[in-house]
Amino acid sequence: MATIKLWFGRQNFHLSKSFLLLKIIAVVFAVLLFCEFLIYYLVIFRCNWPEVKIRGYDSERETLEPVLKAMFLADTHLLGKVRGHWLDKLRREWQMERAFQTALWLLQPEVVFILGDIFDEGKWSSSQAWADDVERFHKMFRHPHHVQLKVVAGNHDIGFHYQMSTYRIKRFEKVFNRERLFSWKGINFVMVNSVALEGDGCNICSEAEAELIKISHKLNCSREVGDHFSWHRCLPFWHFSRAHRHIAPASVGMVSCCRRQPPSFCR
Questions:
Q1: What is the Cα–Cα distance from 25 to 19, expressed in whole angstroms?
Q2: What are the tens digits of pLDDT across the range 161-216?
Q3: Is the full-model pTM beyond 0.85?
Q4: 166, 152, 167: which is closest to 119 by C-alpha?
Q5: Is residue 20 a part of any domain in this protein?
Q6: What is the domain range of residue 85?
Q7: C-alpha to C-alpha distance for 159 and 124, rounded to whole angstroms
């Protein structure tokens, strides 16, 4: 009898240990699930788009009008091969990927802008390191076809002004296209390489300024809706800022956004 009791006691002890181990595993799994997955939904679920009210043209009451849902991100700084530790990269990129994918699913933006410094080592990375970074970027920031993703270069992507080169710019534009003027739902976005706005007359700066003048001319001409055509309005914006020094120049950021029938640049 003593032997049987001892055997049952050992069995119960092993069962208790097994249940305790299962409980610990379940608790750890639940904590990981909450902290690494569900927490993003709980936090971003509290966010919502502001309701934009526009006064109707034919009445005094305010009416709702469809608006563009745009999300702006910046400085993702995906770590590279030189300064990025694999564990740090894994942790950071998992958090960014989950936050972005959750925001896409809950908020459903129509267009997403990433305003520069996508990569941390783009200014010196080799061709292979660049290709690896780009592959990771596309995995993290994957999106449905109906969502527009627009990316603007930053100094960590192509180098600071005196570090940037035509090669790095072309390499960036080959992946993210070189679109400068993007229009969606009647709203115009001017995407500018701000690193090339040093104004020292270098070839890259001169090319960027020429593109801005061309876009300015196009936007000024697009304002001629329902009015008599005027060559005065189709002159580039920079023509006026140079001819009339008392006019404050428009500040051109990395992305300028203007409403319907926009001026050349937003002030």
A1: 10
A2: 888 888 999 999 999 988 888 888 888 899 888 888 888 888 888 888 888 888 88
A3: no
A4: 152
A5: no
A6: 68-178
A7: 8
